[in-house]
Amino acid sequence: MNPAPYIVVTGAHGFVGNHILEKLLMSDLATLRSPVPDQGVEVGKPAGSQVRFSQQAASASQVFDLWAVDLPESAARATAHRFAQSSRVRIVFHKELIDALRAAPQPPLAIIHNGACSSTVERDPAVFAELNVGSSQALWKYCSENGVPFIYASSAAVYGDGLKGFSDLPENCAQYRSLNLYGQSKLDFDLWALEQQQTPPYWFGLRYFNVYGAFESHKGGQASMVFHGYQQATRTGVIRLFKSNTADYSDGNQVRDFVYVKDIVRVTLHLLALALCGEKPVLPPHTRNGCFVNVGTGTTRSWNDLAESVFDALSLPRRIEYIVIPQNISGQYQNYTCADLTVLRQLGYRRAFTPLQEGVREYVQRYLMRGL
To answer: What tens digit of pLDDT does each residue of 208-264 get?
Structure first.
């Protein structure tokens, strides 16, 4: 009997990776290979803290397995326990991945690489060199040698202060200057990818903007302001936001492109379908088998808007206080971000993104208020 095909998801016990793993477990090969994303509205109750999955595919021929890859210390997280009952999931630790891939009877259908250090306050360059650059290079080389599509998480942090815009076209990549080591590590790998003559058959570097959504509590201080705002509002009745550090914006009116995690998953599966459907996607000029893709809403909302959305979801009075930006992040603070979605739309993704109020309401009422 031939082994089942499989897809590798790194960072599977992390925030975005866990959502991708869940969606893949609820898909079959026919769905994955369809380049037209579902245009409907998802309904139904959210998955709980532990989910029991069986064979979800319609027939045995459409079944595929998943490798959930992460650091050993992530095994204690609730996100690692959610899929403990699935016989389709194989747990692989980060440092064992390349050896496990080379020992496998066949390469995976694709690798979706979300594993990284995402801390914007980490000060050790060696952490980023290993987890963000070195591991990404190793997977790129494996995918190039074995003909495996490669989708990886870059970041909008590569754009730095935003004064040079937010274009994901490759010819603009070298002009950006990140504001912290995290963003620089993502930019370093993006630039390295552009230099490679040997590439995966398809590759996409997804530049996430400000992502929020369920199952991010393990991120601590790096979790979204929706998560922290919920904790503050329910405990004290007040949400604290940073004062402005520039005359260009009043307090709380600095703006970001806030994107719901479910939209990140939808974009990822759309790009995966392009890679698996057998039809060559139309890529931007000056690219070799892949490109960078901004993943945001293409619109801006203020931190005040976000805080007000949390209060409204809780049916609480709006009370906002402003505090000084901590010194350790004041020099790397982005006052404005907004995704240029030209490339994403050219790649055929037509679905509208979740409005901020709707995403916050679902996250707060269906997840945070239920202790998820």
So the answer is: 999 999 999 999 999 999 999 999 999 999 999 999 999 999 999 999 999 999 999
Tell me which architecture the domain covering 6-212+258-297+340-346 has in CATH. 3-Layer(aba) Sandwich (3.40)
Given the residues 141, 219, 322, 333, select the one marked as catalytic: 219
Closest by CA to 284, choosing from 342, 197, 339, is: 342
pLDDT digits (tens, 9 = 90+) for 4-21: 999 999 999 999 999 999
Asked if 206 and 223 touch (Cβ cutoff 8 Å), the reply is no
- Can 182 be counted among the known catalytic residues? yes
Active site residue 230: no
Give the Å distances, CA to CA, from 186 to 93, 118, 208, 209, 344: 22, 10, 11, 13, 19
Count Cβ atoms below 10 Å from residue 23 Cβ, excluding itself. Answer: 16
> Which residue has 């066949």 as its token pair?
106
Neighbours of 163 (CB within 10 A): 9
Catalytic option among 142, 159, 176, 182: 182
